[in-house]
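Input record, target 12 of the design panel.
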């Protein structure tokens, strides 16, 4: 049973210019446009085979819709299959949901909000670690101890390593949150002691 391609829903809602530009106009306007239209011109053309049975299957079976799952505003619905292992949570989840609900994936605000949500989640993980019985250990978990055993000078200089540009920033990013947390704890302890 063959299905019409117009019957298969597409998740993209952006409009396509109609009528489509003429091939000759595109070839004149864009250098190199359409170089791979002829299968004989494609390196992979000899191994490309389209299975007609697979082409008629259409969309794969859909997972049950999850109204709490984030979805780009460019898409009419969720993709047929999506991950559920790491559901969004807390303040970082609200920031990420807002990025998906409010801004297109083509906007910088969308991606900056996702980065901000990631940073909020990282800070939350550090705070939870400090409150647990086994807090993170920045000395052993960053691998800084291995620097002294694995030719630290020879591996750093004269090799053209790109990370040399931000080496000065690494201690601030790794130790900075710990120093700030320690300072806040000391400040809070002083206030409590002064009140008593």
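The sequence produced for target 12 reads:
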């Amino acid at each position: 049973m063959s299905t019409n391609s117009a019957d298969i829903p597409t998740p993209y809602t952006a409009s396509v210019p109609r009528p489509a530009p003429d091939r000759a106009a595109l070839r004149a306007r864009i250098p190199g446009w359409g170089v791979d239209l002829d299968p004989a011109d494609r390196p992979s053309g000899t191994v490309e085979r389209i299975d007609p049975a697979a082409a008629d299957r259409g969309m794969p079976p859909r997972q049950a819709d999850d109204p709490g799952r984030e979805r780009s505003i460019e898409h009419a619905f969720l993709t047929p299959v999506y991950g559920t292992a790491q559901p969004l949570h807390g303040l970082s989840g609200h920031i990420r949901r807002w990025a998906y609900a409010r801004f297109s994936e083509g906007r910088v605000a969308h991606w900056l909000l996702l980065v901000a949500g990631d940073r909020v989640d990282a800070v939350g993980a550090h705070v939870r670690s400090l409150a647990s019985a086994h807090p993170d250990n920045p000395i052993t978990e960053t691998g800084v101890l291995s620097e002294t055993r694995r030719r630290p000078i020879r591996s750093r200089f004269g090799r053209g390593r790109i990370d040399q540009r931000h080496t000065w920033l690494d201690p601030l990013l790794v130790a900075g949150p710990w120093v700030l947390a320690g300072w806040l704890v000391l400040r809070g302890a002083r206030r409590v002691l002064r009140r008593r």
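The chain is about 40% helix and 0% strand.
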